[in-house]
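Comment thread on ticket #2218

A.B. wrote:
> Attaching the input chain for the structure job we discussed in standup.
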Amino acid sequence: IYAVRRVLEPELAAGAVPHLTDAHFAALERSLAICAPQPADGYQAVAQRREDLHFHDVLASANPNALLRFFCEVINHLLRHLVTVGEQAAHPAHRRLGETNLAAHRRLLAAARRGDGERVRTLMVEHIDEAWRHVRKLDAAVRRGFVLDSELRPRFADPAAPAQPRTP
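C.D. wrote:
> Ran it. Output below, let me know if you need it in another format.
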C-alpha cells in the first residue's frame, strides 16, 4: 500500500494546492487540532491515526483530477480499514508515529498556505516514507478482506467532514 501511496499522493497533494479553499484550510486545521494532544488512551490514539488519514482525504478533495483523487481515497480507505496495530496503540512507537505525522502535517499545511505545490510534493514524499518506517516498527498487520464499492461511497460523500471513529 505504501509503495503505491508514495507514487500517487505527492502528485495529488501538489495538484490540490492551487484549489484549496478557506473551507479546506479550516478542515485541515481542525484535523491538526484533533491530533495535537497526547492521547489519553489507546482508543484515542487509534482515533487520532484515523484523523491523520482524514487530513489526506481533505487534500484529496481539493484535487481536480478525479481519477487520482479516487485512487488516493481508496488507499486511505484501505489504510483506515485494513491496517491494524492491535494492542500496540499504547506503544511508544505509536506515540512517535502520531508526533511525526502531526509535525509533517503542519509542514504540509504551511507550504500549502504559501501556495508552494513543489514543496508540498517533496514534503509528502518525506512524510509517507517516515510514516512507513514507523508502521514497520509497529509491525502493523494488514487484515485480509474485500473492499466493496458500497463500503467506499458513504465515506467519500463529504471528505471535508471530520473523521468518524469506526464502531467495532
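A.B. wrote:
> Thanks. Noting for the ticket: The chain has seven helices and two strands.
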